[in-house]
């Protein structure tokens, strides 16, 4: 039996197109688009980009100052449960920060790291408020902290700019120090 080259190539090409095209359409319209609608519908989200792979869902977000990050994560996890199903939700928040907010966070970082290491999370808002009392230039900075099962969320804002920090409650363990 002699195979003809043209029909075999056409059949192979059509099969590959249907397989990969179907996979792309499924991923776009059954997974990514519904999750995009959920995220974009949340108040305070200016722009979002979603990337879904086998192990994680990555949300690249541009948020308005004062957006409640913990509630956003909870809302997306609840409403997008069918899409996320077993994948890790990872957030990448665009920082619309200013020098003032960056300086404020730099000064607070040691105390916050100490509170995270000792797992005394209630010290974080206390330290942020103490820093505002000590330095008059930070009096207009609004610092809010929230916590869930996985992360501690710190939001800094001065009304126009904002800085969002996500601190994992279960830090990665270091095996070997890279600078030792």
Q: What does it look like?
A:
A hairpin with a 4-residue loop joins strand 5 (151-157) and strand 6 (162-168). This protein is an alpha+beta fold and 180 residues long. The chain has helices at 5-40, 69-79, 81-84, 99-118, 123-134, and strands at 45-52, 56-63, 88-93, 142-147, 151-157, 162-168. The model has no long low-confidence stretch (mean pLDDT 87). It starts with a helix and ends in a 12-residue tail after the last strand. The strands form 2 sheets. It has a 3-stranded mixed β-sheet with strand order 1-2-3, with helices on one face. A 3-stranded antiparallel β-sheet has the order 4-5-6, covered by helices on one side.
Can you tag this structure with a few keywords?
23% strand; single chain; 180 residues; alpha+beta
Distance between the termini: 69 Å
Sum up the overall morphology in one term: elongated
Question: What is the helix tally?
Answer: 5
- Kindly state the number of beta strands: 6
Order of helices and strands: HEEHHEHHEEE
What topology, given as strand order, has the largest sheet? 1-2-3
Sheet-strand content, in percent, reads 15-25%
Share in helix: 40-55%
- Main beta-sheet annotation: 3 strands, mixed
Summarize the structure.
Helices cover 46% and strands 23% of the residues. The chain has five helices and six strands, in the order H-E-E-H-H-E-H-H-E-E-E. The strands form two sheets. Strands 1-2-3 form a three-stranded mixed sheet, covered by helices on one side. The protein has a three-stranded antiparallel sheet with strand order 4-5-6, covered by helices on one side.
């Amino acid at each position: 039996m002699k195979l003809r080259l043209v029909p075999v190539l056409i059949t192979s090409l059509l099969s590959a197109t249907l397989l990969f095209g179907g996979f792309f359409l499924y991923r776009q319209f059954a997974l990514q688009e519904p999750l995009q609608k959920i995220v974009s519908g949340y108040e305070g989200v200016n722009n979002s980009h979603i990337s879904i792979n086998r192990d994680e869902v990555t949300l690249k977000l541009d948020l308005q100052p004062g957006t409640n990050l913990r509630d956003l994560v909870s809302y997306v996890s609840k409403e997008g449960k069918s899409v996320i199903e077993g994948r890790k939700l990872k957030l990448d928040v665009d920082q619309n920060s200013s020098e003032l907010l960056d300086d404020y966070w730099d000064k607070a970082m040691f105390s916050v790291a100490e509170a995270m290491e000792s797992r005394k999370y209630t010290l974080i808002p206390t330290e942020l408020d103490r820093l505002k009392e000590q330095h008059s230039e930070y009096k207009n900075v609004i610092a809010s902290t929230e916590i869930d099962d996985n992360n501690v969320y710190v939001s800094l804002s001065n009304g126009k700019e904002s800085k969002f920090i996500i601190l994992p409650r279960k830090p990665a363990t270091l095996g070997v120090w890279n600078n030792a």
